Amino acid sequence: MAGKNSLKQIAEKTGLAISTVSQILNGRAYNYSSESTKLRVIQAAQELGYQTNFGYKLMKGLKTKTVAILNSMPQMNTEEYVLELIMRMISEFDQLGYSAYCSTFSNDPEKNLEKIRTLIGRGVEHFVLLGCPYGHEAIINEIEKNELSLISNSGNFERWVSNGAVYGATAIFRHLKEQTGDNFKLICQAKDVVSDCSRLQSLQQVFPHLTLEQIIADFVFSFPDIEFEVEDYLRLAGQKSYNATRELLRQFPKIGAIAYMNDVFAIGGGCCLLENGNEHFRKILLYGFNNDHTVWNFPLPISSVGFCLGKQAELLVRHALLKTPCREIVYPKLHVRTVNSGPAYPHWDETIINCTPQEEKSQLK
Fold first, then answer.
1. Could you tell me the pTM of the whole model?
2. Strand order in the sheet with 126-130
3. Phi/psi class of residue 272: alpha, beta or left (left: φ > 0; alpha: ψ in -120 to 50)?
4. CA angle centred on 50, ends 47 and 54, rounded to 5°
5. pLDDT per residue over 196-217, tens digit each?
6. Contact 139/116 with Cβ under 8 angstroms?
7. CA-to-CA distance for 331 and 334, rounded, in angstroms?
8. Burial environment of residue 51 by CB neighbours within 10 A (0 to 12, 13 to 18, 19 or more)
């Protein structure tokens, strides 16, 4: 059996007994080897290409030390901050001796439930769900029925670690109110014009005297939805945002600022302002979301909300391995970028605003 041969080779390489090697690689609670010894065994296992036999573990009722990280929609696979968050979690899980599956849900609740059942059949013991997938209630029931752990960054779940997006959006709209009064618009997809959209909730926080209908009428400019699954989301999103921005400028040529649902949309809108003939629009304030690298050096200053990914990854990993109550918020930061009057590089001045309920502010030059 390949597993036994591998254990023997690792034991010979490290000068340890096969039983000790097995205890370390399988995370036995009664193993009392030093951390240096455990590290030596793990490094030898990696060098020899050792792979855990999950089928054997399942038959014996042993722990597999596996976790599944799942995105709720395909477009998240192209979002820079999501990919970085996943890589940080994989690294932390690896340091704890856990293996990770990464996958994406569809817009079919039955297929999503079947995906969960398949992963459980493969021995996954812990689940991290990013976003809220279709059929999330059935998914929760299936995981709980099998007495496994589940953590998410969505408030639709019992246990969550939030990225504080609603606080970031509120900081944007509060800043826009200070800069332009009510002379700004939010460009979004038609599907985002719903009562539970975090952006609309944030607008209501900033303009509490307005009804939801008034908020939508005064501040929202929507374009047709992008399909759930598209081959090139980044290209299509940029194109649609470009077209929406052009139409917005035609209808509201004196607009003072434009906020977008994410940085991809903001880049598309910025490209519209950069076109020949649109020079008079280049003083319009632009706001994205996620603080992707692409906005840092865009020819026009784009302010954006950035998430504290290291802290999020740490908390998601920690709570993924537990079943205790968890409702934590990791507050983001608003990066306000303005034109730098001097020759300094980078060419934007940047003010960082902590998006906490207290709205603590600090500045970086």
1. 0.81
2. 99-104, 66-71, 126-130, 149-152, 160-162, 327-329
3. alpha
4. 155
5. 888 999 999 999 999 999 999 9
6. yes
7. 10
8. exposed
DSSP string, 166-224: HHHHHHHHHHHHHHHTT-EEEEEEGGG-STT-HHHHHHHHHSTTS-HHHHHHHHEEEEP
Kindly tell me the burial class for residue 121, based on how many C-beta atoms sit within 10 Å of its own C-beta (0-12, 13-18, 19 or more).
Answer: exposed
Confidence label for 115 from pLDDT (cuts 50, 70 and 90):
very high
Given the structure tokens 């990464």, which residue do they identify? Answer: 102
Work out the burial of residue 122: count CB atoms within 10 Å of its CB; fewer than 13 is exposed, 13-18 middle, 19 or more buried: middle
Per-residue pLDDT reduced to its tens digit, 334-361:
999 998 766 555 578 999 999 998 654 4
User: Span 115-121, mean pLDDT?
Assistant: 93
Q: Dump pLDDT digits (tens) for 27-80.
A: 655 566 787 887 788 788 777 776 665 554 544 555 678 999 999 999 999 999
Give the position of tokens 């194109």.
239
Omega within 30 of 0 (cis) for the link into 109: no
Alpha-carbon torsion 239, 256, 184, 79, what sign? positive
What pLDDT is attached to residue 364? 30
Q: How many angstroms separate the CA atoms of 194 and 185, rounded?
A: 16
pLDDT at 64: 77
pLDDT beyond 90 at 362: no
| Domains annotated on the chain, with CATH | 2-51 (1.10.260.40), 66-162 (3.40.50.2300), 165-306+332-364 (3.40.50.2300)
pLDDT at 341: 66
Cβ atoms of 28 and 60 within 8 Å: the answer is no
* Three-class SS state of 349: strand
- Alpha carbon distance 361, 353 (integer Å): 5
Contacts of 348 (CB under 8 A, 6+ apart): 301, 337, 338, 339, 340
35 burial (CB, 10 Å; 0-12 / 13-18 / 19+) is: exposed
